[in-house]
Fold Activator of Hsp90 ATPase 1 family protein.
Amino acid sequence: MSTTIDVAPELENELVLARIIDAPREKIFRAWTDPEILKQWFVPKPWTISKVEMDVRPGGSSLIVMRDPDGNEYPNPGIFLEVVENERIVTTDAFTGAWTPSQKPFMTMILTLEDAGKGRTRYIARALHWNAEDREAHEKMGFHEGWGQCADQLEEIAATL
Amino acid sequence: MSTTIDVAPELENELVLARIIDAPREKIFRAWTDPEILKQWFVPKPWTISKVEMDVRPGGSSLIVMRDPDGNEYPNPGIFLEVVENERIVTTDAFTGAWTPSQKPFMTMILTLEDAGKGRTRYIARALHWNAEDREAHEKMGFHEGWGQCADQLEEIAATL
């Protein structure tokens, strides 16, 4: 199990998930950027991911289709804003391509990976929203539980890489 | 005077300003990216610009403060998403820094500069919005007249560079 650490939000409409993950940041970065690996941990089970397309570079599109246990599919289109190998990934759903506005800008995600020693990583995922309503909706959708479970699933997968 | 050309919007909530400008694209790019030059043409006169700060690179912030004839100031914070020298500039007001969400994402601007021969440039500025309401509001604020007047002012300035 990943270890929860205490990191406060920096911005007004931010949710933050901070963990020490027992895997080096190279493996975590790979699990975030290799579609076949991402599929195995990116949604809380028993949900699954039926499709992943990612063009991992600033301005590159991504599409992640999530599937619930009844087989309903939920496409999540977005774009990469910034990619620094093994260190940092920034994505947003405000665009579906470079630079096509999405139906609604809901959030921007900043992931930072820092070496925490002994092959572990300080893993901080910040979800930034454009207003308080969206932040609250995201929290009620189960941000902390969902992203926390995914962090644990990520740790398990990383151990196999 | 710059020459209006007929270019249709590509996206649903887009406004487009298309001109042939009698200046080479290097000078137009410079007029867009040098704060002291930008100040001289970027708002329709008699409005003025009291302050310009620009970090011209993907993820770099920009702040343009417009001033009306009564002295009221209107700050416009934003960010560069893409910069290709002499060819392409993409900005948005959805972020005020890398990657701080703004108060409200209103538009993304894609400017493309193409060589039109004889030292002229095919100048296309596309304003993309997240919904029809914002596109309509922008049009009513005088998008075509305002951006058109600015294109003429830009042409005049470029002739002096």
Remarks:
- The interface with chain B takes residues 11, 13, 58-59, 81-82, 90, 92, 94-95, 98-105, 108, 110, 128-130 of chain A (CB under 8 Å).
- Residues 143-158 of chain A form the longest helix (16 residues).
- Chain A has a mean pLDDT of 97.
- The domain at 3-158 of chain A is CATH 3.30.530.20 (Alpha-D-Glucose-1,6-Bisphosphate; Chain A, domain 4).
